[in-house]
Write a structure and sequence with these properties.
about 550 residues, mainly alpha, MetI-like fold, 2 strands, about 75% helix, globular, transmembrane helix, MetI-like_sf, membrane
């Protein structure tokens, strides 16, 4: 703190005492928060409300809500999401222990391998499980959704577990408690907030899963998300889509409320963080947990290996035809562009979406931090509302948002419906909550006395951010950028609806290839998925190498 004060003093800050710095920062945060609120209003709230209004105007919403088929869809959506959540929690728990409490060679590699499934595009995951279970079905959907979200449990629970003081558990052991009883009575209650938070997030992702269900469920098994897509795109049934969107939105808000409560409980458990070196070599029965974690890790790698093998397996045996075909448009002109052109489109749109999401997400995170510490109750409430609202795009149907773009954005002075920025705007909506959740914990961990010292020495809010916050949050910004990039690279829901036929992204091209007959098209689709997987694995390793201690995956 003294060093920061000297730097500010040497640049002319002495003698200018900021009056009531807390109020000044709150006002500045209010000004900065205009952009995130405006972005959410124009590119999320407006399109969603417009679609709901059209649905109600067409009539039939009440009939759709009263139809038994609607509630069968809702029941299946909730059931498969609950089943996948249970599997993800059970599989993620031993991995959380491995990441938090075990000190063995290669743990850094394990961390990267655990993260890879979560950042894989949904199209890749869907095809990977089709390589294992060609018929898909309920089991395939549940397994794929659990595979996709094990990392959320492992990293969220493991993040808190690594900060728990082992002395409480050791004390219980010294008093005669068995290892199992010490875990059940001491460690597990302390971990429950993180488990609840992770479970709420996993349920949210599984309930709104689109690409996985579309590829593995087909026409036999549909969730609310895929049914909204069918009614909007194929049937133009806006009233039915609006009714289903309302049901889905209610489930999303409930999951977000559970997650918010669990997150506050997890934050209140910060007082348990006293152990810096909680990891150690396993002893006795702990090796059994390590062995279970190893089995889970092998199961996570199985679909990835199956995908790679399928990409080089033709009718006549081993072949590179799928990879060579990426330079063309597929069998019988399946694509309007080459596979490499689709890959370049993905890179461009992901770059634009990531840059936009970083700008909006960082401004939103700064606004939330400052308003939560404001002396004014109204500002604190506004910060809580903003924080919650930023999470809604993760749970609202991407198809609803995408169709809403086509309905509303033509009314703007610049018609964005034909703009190449349309897809990046939709992808940025998905990335912004992730950026906020990665950056926000780091900003909250910054010692407020540093900011106060800088303000007392005359630094304005912008200079406080540049001199104090930015150096501390830089690593999290790099991780957020990398994480957001791979999410945008594999985004399929809104992109499949908004991408122009002459400029598809690689996930959209892969989905088109899968739907076309011909062995070459199938091999080309699997080859494209392997390319996406290689890029996401590389970026996952980058995230691991630069991640900040407080920026943990799953801080939702």
């Amino acid at each position: 703190m003294a060093r920061a004060a000297r730097r500010l003093d040497s640049r002319g800050g002495r003698g200018r005492v900021a009056a009531r710095p807390g109020w000044g920062r709150t006002s500045a945060a209010g000004a900065l928060g205009v952009l995130p609120v405006a972005f959410l209003g124009v590119f999320f709230a407006w399109p969603v409300v417009a679609i709901l209004r059209l649905g109600f105007a067409d009539g039939g919403v009440a009939d759709t809500l009263a139809a038994p088929s609607t509630w069968r869809l809702a029941a299946f959506t909730v059931a498969q999401a609950l089943a996948a959540t249970v599997v993800a929690v059970l599989a993620g728990f031993p991995l959380a222990y491995l990441l938090a409490r075990v000190r063995l060679p290669g743990i850094a590699i394990v961390r990267t391998l655990v993260l890879v499934p979560f950042v894989l595009p949904t199209v890749v995951v869907g095809l990977a499980f089709r390589a294992l279970w060609p018929d898909g079905g309920v089991f395939g959907i549940v397994a794929a959704n659990a595979f996709f979200n094990v990392a959320v449990v492992a990293r969220t629970v493991g993040g808190l577990w690594s900060q728990l003081d082992r002395r409480a558990e050791d004390a219980a052991r010294s008093l005669g408690a068995s290892r199992r009883r010490a875990f059940r009575t001491v460690t597990l209650p302390a971990l429950l907030p993180a488990v609840s938070s992770a479970a709420a997030v996993v349920f949210l992702f599984c309930a709104t899963s689109f690409g996985v269900v579309l590829m593995l469920g087909g026409n036999r098994y549909r969730t609310l998300e895929t049914e909204i897509y069918l009614r909007t795109v194929n049937l133009l049934d806006l009233s039915g889509a609006a009714a289903l969107s309302l049901v889905q939105l209610a489930a999303v808000i409930a999951a977000l409320a559970v997650g918010a409560v669990a997150r506050r409980r997890r934050e209140s458990a910060a007082g348990l963080r006293t152990a810096r070196h909680s990891a150690r070599r396993p002893e006795g029965g702990e090796w059994a947990v390590v062995a279970v974690a190893g089995v889970v890790l092998c199961l996570l790698l199985t679909p990835i290996v199956a995908l790679v093998l399928r990409s080089v397996s033709g009718r006549d045996g081993f072949t590179w035809d799928g990879y060579r075909a990426l330079s063309g448009s597929g069998e019988d002109g399946a694509l309007t562009v080459t596979g490499w052109d689709a890959a370049l489109n993905s890179l461009r749109t992901a770059s634009d979406a990531t840059m936009l999401a970083l700008i909006v997400g960082v401004l939103a995170a700064v606004t939330v931090v400052v308003t939560r510490r404001s002396p004014r109750r109204g500002a604190r409430v506004a910060g809580e509302i903003t924080d919650a609202a930023l999470m809604l795009p993760l749970g609202v149907s991407a198809v609803t948002v995408g169709f809403g773009y086509l309905v509303t954005l033509g009314e703007l002075p610049w018609d964005l419906r034909t703009s190449p920025l349309l897809v990046p705007f939709a992808q940025a909506l998905v990335i912004i909550p992730l950026v906020v959740r990665l950056v926000l914990p780091v900003l909250r961990s910054v010692d407020e006395r540093l900011r106060q010292a800088a303000a007392t020495l005359g630094a304005g809010p912008a200079r406080v951010w540049r001199e104090v916050d930015l150096p501390l949050v830089a690593r999290s910004l790099v991780a957020a950028a990398a994480f957001g990039y791979v999410v945008a690279l594999g985004e399929f829901g809104a992109t499949s609806f908004l991408a122009r036929p002459d400029a598809p992204t690689l996930p959209v091209a892969v989905a088109d290839l899968v739907s076309r007959p011909g062995e070459l098209n199938q091999l080309m689709a699997y080859a494209g998925c392997v390319l996406l997987m290689v890029v996401t694995a590389f970026v996952a390793a980058l995230i691991e190498s630069v991640r900040a201690p407080h920026a943990r995956l799953g801080e939702f």
